[in-house]
Design goal:
Layout lengths: L2 H40 L8 H36 L2
Helix pairs in contact: 1-2
Subcellular location: Cell membrane; Bacterial flagellum basal body
Family: Belongs to the FliQ/MopD/SpaQ family.
Membrane topology: Multi-pass membrane protein
Length: 88
């Protein structure tokens, strides 16, 4: 296996990781920003207030995005298995 093939596999893995984790991270970012804005506007300084809405939103996004995430991971595994079977 050449260095170029290893870099190609690594790049494919990083792109797959971003496809899988990106939507959840964006949801967490948006909910965290909204709760922080709400805290700033109402001057509520509760540190634990941000966790419950963020956990619920990420869990809901996970349930919604699970088929897409599974498909992305399965196709990545298929590409890796194909490389293994072809010998490199």
């Amino acid at each position: 296996m050449t260095g170029l093939a290893i870099l190609d596999i690594a790049r494919d893995g990083i792109v797959t990781f971003l496809k899988v984790a990106g939507p959840l991270m964006i949801v967490a970012l948006i909910v965290g920003l909204a709760v922080s804005l709400f805290q700033a506007l109402t001057q509520i300084q509760e540190q634990t207030l941000i966790y419950v809405p963020k956990i619920v939103a990420v869990f809901a996004a996970l349930l919604f995005m699970l088929p897409f995430m599974g498909d992305a991971l399965a196709s990545y595994m298929g590409r890796i298995a194909e490389r293994i079977a072809s010998g490199g």
